[in-house]
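idk why but the lab printer keeps eating my pages so im just putting this in chat instead. protein + iron/sulfur cluster:
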Amino acid sequence: MAAQPPPARPRIPGSGLAKGLAVTLRTMTRKSVTEQYPDVQPDLAPRTRGVIGLFEENCTVCMLCARECPDWCIYIDSHKETVPPAAPGGRERSRNVLDRFAIDFSLCMYCGICIEVCPFDALFWSPEFEYAETDIRDLTHERDKLREWMWTVPAPPALDPAAEEPKELAAARKTADKLAAEQAAEPGAGQAAETPAQQAAEPGAGQAAEPAAGQQAARPETEPAPKEGES
Ligand code: SF4
Ligand code: SF4
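predcted complex ->
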């Protein structure tokens, strides 16, 4: 035998209206979360994925980003150039020169893989997001535009003061110290490094030097008369 449904509760007239008004009142007293954009700019997290900036000088045209992009929306063109040997008798080298670097943001899904895989720190996230276009073709940003986005990339967070010095910094410091030591050890290096201001400050420097033409012209024509007792 099928179970009998529970008996329906008696309806109080006007209870639906009271419930609706209660919801309205609750919502009215709650703090609004509406963003007043574009009158008020949103407060974004510093690492927001807005757009990708290209630091062209670091790009070696290795093509890793273009190969790893799941959407195939990075377009890179390059050509090879022969670099003459650095020292006589050395070998010529060839290097890639970037001709085109573009990202189609109408296809990009902002996964960040290209930035992660770039081995030379040439790509960065910028929190800028106001680059909507009326023509979808304008969403392909060429290298000049990608470079402009670099100005909006936030600075990296400061290093932990207790952290070990990065190896790049340590290597640069070591090279600078070595160069300074070499320059100091060179004979006459100290004299050569003397600035004109230091030379001018040396006692007698002005007397030893030949006076300038203007100074010679200003010298009196006649010598002053010798003082008494002088021969
Ligand atoms: S963020 Fe992802 S989809 Fe966009 S260009 Fe980079 S790899 Fe491609
Ligand atoms: S992975 Fe980096 S260095 Fe290589 S082509 Fe892309 S941006 Fe340039």
